[in-house]
Specification:
This protein has three domains: 5-264, 2-Layer Sandwich (Aconitase, domain 3); 268-414, 2-Layer Sandwich (Aconitase, domain 3), CATH 3.30.499.10; 465-639, Aconitase, domain 4, CATH 3.20.19.10. The model has no long low-confidence stretch (mean pLDDT 97). The longest helix is centred in the first third of the chain and has 16 residues, at 73-88. It is globular, with a radius of gyration of 23 Å. The chain is built from 22 helices and 25 strands. Helix 2 crosses helix 3, helix 6 runs parallel beside helix 7 and helix 21 (621-629) crosses helix 22. The protein is 29% helix and 18% strand. Bound molecules: alpha-methylisocitric acid (MIC) and iron/sulfur cluster (SF4). Alpha-methylisocitric acid (MIC) binds next to helix 2.
Length: 641
């Protein structure tokens, strides 16, 4: 039987002796990346692993999220990451170079390789035919130390693309169309492979937009074959030697096939507050906008900037609308300067922001109260922009630029042809710091500012648990609900005690106080608990507040792994209808935990109503051990792998 592209990469990287069952894929990891907001935790974990130098082919530490430097916390974190990178032989990319995923695509991604990153949008590099996955920081640390990365053996979904994109329609609309079809949980447990005659016309940056938003359907990864487009991109980047052709076999078998006809696609837009709340732009056109943001790891390539600039050229941003532009990397910025696109944008009234995540993670540029913000980004979860009642829409650069000029949501397919030439970018690494020779690296002093607190430690899992059901939440609760980001909170990413004041406050402003009072907490939740980012703070901080178990209808993949790594029981209702039997504030008891984790069956008793609710604890053999040890750090101390 033929193999899919992802199956081929998996097979080449399988560490067979570490797979506990055919469903557990233990993968050798060639490359890792971290960003600063999750990086400090990852490197604190790495320091505990007793290695001298990273054991991957390449590891890169980017600073791109937390670049505002409003106080000492941001620069101290960056300084820690810079020195820890120098100590362990990791490439360091300081703030200003650009967004990790764009930079990794430009300079390091290679067809056929495996990459994990402490950021959920790591699959962006799937555009180069590599298997790239988001992971918790501790799992990235294990990979840097030479350990395998474990994922449930993924299902294979094929998206068969036919036809060609029409005027005003772009790769972002393809990503939104997939979200429209399969929703924010439609890709959980699967690798999505784009195929069909329609993909030949898509350039690597366009493919990167699609792979990037594969995170929004919950997919483990998204991949494109490595073909002529890949070769072209790598030649442009001065890396032709990294090219190898790679594709799935003709007779490869997929678990599901999805059809998209590019020719009939219209410009799409995700309405508040979920990336899968997709409508056609036409349906909402005329809605007044307060703010437009162009950039983020989804849409910040030279191509994206050029087409936005072509629409803005010779026009002015409508009165009362603010427009921000954040290029994805220095390379993109320099191409914008050289081509005159930057001048066209500033003349139109755009505010040019740093090459960084910026408004995407609420680091500045929050919309006005109740404002409408149109963003070329990938997530529009409630409050993520920094303004609680803002209404954030996600769209293509073309829709964004036109709407900025019109002052209301406008459909770019109604424009005449957008005259836009995409110049070749001059590959530049900016001020990236390459690893030093081993002897020199060993002499590096690791510098820690006062905001960097040690990773909290907990004991082994107990056999029984009595706790309060402090929160009963609904479906699709994101990590932005659990552990919000933004300019006020992100500076504390290296300080779990300080972060705990903000935990789950989007769902219940009093959650931190209630959890502290309860001592031990269980949370009940609907489908897809922990959707969104890879931030392990969404597990470590609840654990710090005494959260010991989450009973949900289902979990998002990365977050479930993070819960296990933090020693929190991820339990799934055996019968989803039992969700209705649990009541907030009731006492909860779970007995026989050690045996239950092994057998995968645990009973959760609501002490007030007496209901005994059956749950499943679906973990591979290694995860069971991690959980019983009380988390990944304890497990590493005990087993060392
Ligand atoms: C995000 O887009 O939500 C983030 C911020 O990049 C996160 C990582 C983080 O929380 O630091 C992600 O996507 O994993
Ligand atoms: Fe940064 Fe936004 Fe991309 Fe996350 S989604 S990596 S915050 S640009």
């Amino acid at each position: 039987m033929g193999k899919t592209l992802a199956q081929k990469i998996i097979e080449n990287h399988l560490v067979r002796e570490e797979c506990s069952s055919p469903e557990d894929a233990a993968l050798r990891i060639d490359q890792t990346l971290t960003q600063d907001a999750t990086g400090t935790m990852a490197y604190l974990a790495l320091e505990n692993m007793g290695i001298d130098r990273v054991r991957t082919e390449l590891s890169v530490a980017y600073v791109d999220h937390n670049t505002l430097q409003c106080g000492f916390e941001n620069p101290d974190d960056a300084q820690y990451i810079r020195t820890v990178a120098a100590r362990y032989g990791i490439v360091y990319s300081p703030a200003g170079n650009g967004i990790c995923h764009r930079l990794h695509l430009e300079h390091f991604g290679k067809p056929g390789k495996t990459l994990i990153g402490s950021d959920s949008h790591t699959p962006t590099c799937g555009a180069l035919g590599m298997l790239a996955m988001g992971a918790g920081g501790m799992d990235v640390a294990v990979a840097m130390a030479g350990g395998a990365y474990h994922i449930p053996m993924p299902k294979m979904i094929r998206v068969n693309l036919s036809g060609r994109l029409q005027k005003g329609v772009s790769a972002k609309d393809l990503a939104l169309e997939l979200l429209r079809q399969i929703s924010v949980k439609g890709g959980v447990g699967a690798v999505i492979e784009w195929a069909g005659e329609g993909i030949a016309a898509l350039t690597v940056p366009e493919r990167a937009t699609i792979c990037n938003m594969g995170a929004e359907v919950g997919a483990t990864s998204t991949v494109f074959p490595s073909d002529e487009q890949t070769k072209h991109f790598l030649i442009e980047q001065g890396r032709e030697e990294d090219y190898i052709p790679l594709r799935s076999d003709e007779d490869a078998v997929y678990d599901r096939e999805i059809l998209i006809d590019a020719s009939s696609l219209k410009p799409l837009i995700a309405c508040p507050h979920s990336p899968d709340n997709v409508r056609t732009v036409k349906e909402v056109s005329g809605t007044p906008v307060n703010q437009v943001c162009i950039g983020s790891c989804t849409n910040s390539s030279v191509r994206d900037m050029m087409s936005a600039a072509a629409i803005l050229k010779g026009k002015r941003v409508a009165e009362g609308v603010e427009l921000s532009v954040s290029p994805g990397s220095r390379e993109v910025l320099e191409a914008m300067i050289a081509s005159g696109a930057l001048a066209d944008m500033t003349a139109a009234g755009a505010r040019i922001l740093e090459c960084a995540c910026g408004p995407c993670i609420g680091m500045g540029f929050s919309p006005v109260s109740g404002g409408v913000s149109l963003r070329t980004f990938n997530r529009n979860f409630e409050g993520r922009s920094g303004t609680r009642d803002a209404k954030v829409y996600l769209c293509s650069p073309e829709t964004a630029a036109l709407s900025a000029v019109m002052g209301c949501i406008a459909d770019p397919s109604e424009l005449d042809e957008i005259a836009c030439a995409v110049p070749q970018a001059n590959s530049t690494m900016g001020n990236m710091v390459m690893p030093k020779p081993e002897n020199e690296a060993r002499r590096t002093e690791i510098l820690r500012g006062p905001n960097i607190k040690p990773m909290p430690k907990w004991g082994r899992m107990e056999d029984s648990l009595e706790a309060c059901l402090t929160l009963k939440a609904g479906d699709n609760i994101t990590t932005d609900h659990i552990m919000p980001a933004g300019a006020k909170i992100l500076p504390y990413r290296s300080n779990i005690p300080r972060m705990s004041d903000f935990c789950l406050t989007v769902c219940d402003a009093d959650f931190p106080t209630k959890a502290k009072q309860a001592g031990q907490t269980v949370i009940a939740a609907g489908e897809n608990w922990g959707q969104g980012s890879s931030r392990e703070h969404a597990a470590l901080v609840p654990r710090y507040l005494g959260v010991r178990a989450i009973v949900a209808k289902s979990f998002a993949r990365i977050h479930k792994a993070n819960l296990v790594n933090a020693g929190i029981l991820p339990l799934v209702f055996a019968d989803p209808a039992d969700y209705d039997l649990l009541r907030q504030d009731d006492g909860i008891r779970i007995d026989g935990i050690k045996e239950g984790v092994q057998s995968g069956k645990l009973t959760v008793t609501d002490l007030k109503s007496g209901h005994a609710i059956e749950t499943r604890c679906e973990l591979d053999a290694r995860q069971k051990q991690i959980l019983l040890c009380g988390g990944l750090m304890n497990y590493m101390e005990e087993y060392g792998k």
